[in-house]
Structures are given as C-alpha cells and as structure tokens.
Amino acid sequence: MIKSSGSGKRILIVNVNWIGDVIFSTPFIKAIRDAYPDGYIACLLHPRCADILKGSPRIDEIIIYDEEGRHKGIIGKLTLILYLRKRSFDMAFILHRSFTKALLTYLSGIKERIGYPTKSRGFLLTRTIGLPEEEVHKVEYFLGLARGYGIKVSENSYEFFVQDADRESMKKFLKSRGVTDKDRLIVLCPGGNWAPKRWPKKNFARLADMLAEGLSAKIVLSGAKKDSVLVEEIRLVMKSIPVISCGETTLKELGALLERADLVVANDSGPMHLAVAMKSNVIALFGPTSPGLTGPYGKGNYRVIWKTEGCDPSTGSGSHPEALEGCEVPCYDVTCADNRCMALITVEDVFREAEGLLRL
Predict the structure, then answer these.
(1) CB of 188 within 8 A of CB of 269?
(2) Residue 208 has pLDDT above 70, yes or no
(3) Do 14 and 93 touch, CB atoms closer than 8 A?
(4) Which residues partner with 94 through β-bridges?
(5) CA 268 to CA 270: how far, in whole Å?
(6) Which CATH number fits the domain 10-149, given the four candidates 1.25.40.10, 3.30.450.40, 3.40.50.2000, 3.50.50.60?
C-alpha cells in the first residue's frame, strides 16, 4: 500500500489517444498526484490531446508521442525511447490498452510497469491489475489501475483547466457578436466523431429557435472547424440568428465558452465532457453509445437523454435488421443509416430538460 505522504518518484502516465478518453483519465491523474505529492509526473499522449492536460497542476511534463509524425517508424520510436531513458522514470502506469505502449515502457528501461494485461502484453508488465469483471465507465476503468495498485481514490470528477486569458479572449469574442455578460447563453454542440452519434440537424435548428424565443437566450453553435458545414446547415434553417464559433476558438477558449454558458446541449462528444468538466449545466444526447460507459460522470449538473427502444433487435427494426439479429443495444454500428435511436429524442424532450436545469 502506498502511503499518502507520497515520495519523490519519477512517474510516467501513458495516456490514451482521444480527447474524451483523456478527460476520463483526469481523475486517475489526480489520484496519482495525491498519492505522490512530491513526485515528478509526466504524461505521454497524442498531440491532438495535449491541450486537455496543458496547464494542469497535477502534472509536471507533457511528452508528445506523435505516432503519425516524427515518431512514426522504427527510427522515430527509437528517438522516443532514448528520450524516455534520459528522463529516468521509476515507474509507468499504462492507461492505453495497446501492446506497443507497454513495449515502449519496457524498452525505455522503466523498472516498474503497471497496467491491465490486454493485448497479450502481461509479460511486459511488472504488475498486472485484474480487468474489471463487468464493463464499467471509462473513468472507473482507469481508476481501477490506481485502486489495484493500492492507491486511495477520493475523487471521480473530470478536470480541465483554463486561464483568465482564455476567459478574457472568449468574453471579447462574444461581445463582438453582441453577447453581453447579462445575456442568457446556451451553447449547442451538434458534432460527433461518427454520424450515428449526432442528433438530427433539423432538431438542433428547431431546438435553437425554441430556446431563443421561449427562454430569451442567445444561442452559440459550437464545434471544431470540421463541423463548419454541419453548423452552417443548421443555421440556414433557423429563424433566430446564432453565434457561430466553429474553428474560432482554441480548446482552452472552448472550455471558457462552456464555462460561461448557462446551458450546453451536446451529443456524446469531447465538448460534452469538457462542459461537464467546466461544471456547466449539460444535456447529453445519447443513441448508439452507452452513457453507462462513456456518459457524463462525477459531480455536476447534467442530464442524459437516451432512448433505444426503436432499435430493439427483436423487432427487426433499424437500417439492417439482418445484421441486428442477436446484437445488443447500444450497438456501436458506425454504418447505421437509420439513426433511429437519436431520432427518438424529441425537441420537446430536450426543451423540458433545459427548462428544468435552468431553474436550478
């Protein structure tokens, strides 16, 4: 059992590759810092996720593992291994499931390597932690490594840190679009990393108009630059005039925007989890994915709307009934063109939840 006083150990956390999953890892990172308050903690992760942990007081160093860039191929990996060797880490917690990540820590000479024995990599670890007997939320999956190693976990809420400069930048952005500090602000995030996770565009447009008129709110349509076409299609069928922030903000500025918002409505996506981390009022819309595994988690004011009865395999419904035979809901079917589970969520469902949250 690790003493709560911690030690001066040098610790590497090998993180995961996606923004939402890195947010899920933040309670784990906090647990490690609490256990080793005097330790040097570095985090190895994909370049697209660096801003999630930038500015975190829990870690001392972010090490980029650019698998598609400078660390691609044998020479690139050797470069990273040599760098890790020079850092002289005492131990590594490997959150990523891959064989390669475990091999990197082994070749880097890190004496203590802790992880789950996934991808037949158990022989590369010095301490294997038993996998959960049942599927659990990703936050708990990561915290299981800490608990399995004997570390006390006191918190399971996400963390995301923004600076006053980010808040000031967002304030200026909103002011330039006619939004004042006194305005009720509602942010809609219609994106998602695969199409079946997205609520229909027409629903977002109608909801935006209802919120603007019924709740006297200013509406922001938010997303990454890649969501610009989607957001423009929503804007074109709206009666009210929204603020468009797609491609206009850094990730930290997006955090500041979500923090400022009185309400955020989002699909199962990175921005939804950022909003939860910023302690916003959040309505999370779920369809083919499971809120029990990847939904909002920890402390916060959030509501999940999830309806799957229209995709019951026993009814033969859905876009490919023959493919649904024997499957479970959620199905994670990225090829589904029906999107029935998302379409089941009505605009009225979301508006009612919005009214309830804004009365808090």
Answers:
(1) no
(2) yes
(3) yes
(4) 14, 115
(5) 7
(6) 3.40.50.2000
